[in-house]
Amino acid sequence: xxxxxxxxxxxxxxxxxxxxxxxxxxxxxxxxxxxxxxxxxxxxxxxxxxxxxxxxxxxxxxxxxxxxxxxxxxxxxxxxxxxxxxxxxxxxxxxxxxxxxxxxxxxxxxxxxxxxxxxxxx
Length: 122
Prior knowledge:
Layout: H1 2-19, E1 22-31, E2 42-45, E3 51-53, E4 59-65, E5 69-73, E6 80-83, E7 88-92, E8 102-105, E9 108-111
Parallel strand pairs: 1-7
Antiparallel strand pairs: 1-4, 2-3, 2-5, 5-6, 8-9
């Protein structure tokens, strides 16, 4: 009886594993403006922790569930979520947020407009 039950559980487990189709997705991540590859961009399957980073040429390879979406991110660029397909080329646009000028004072920092003394640059 135990052997039949074990066999039934094993067959059901194999059926569940094979029911999830897996596809290998390849692609390249480049800068939108220049077309240069982005090295070390993060590529994640949306909603999971399955991911990779791009290589020296901006290429990636990732095994994902069929019909999955991929999330692309990199510091200084806008995050994108796209449908996964083989041979995709992702063009990432720069994120343009302006920073205020900051003056370093000793071990702290202050905004330039708040400095009351003289400032020296090295």
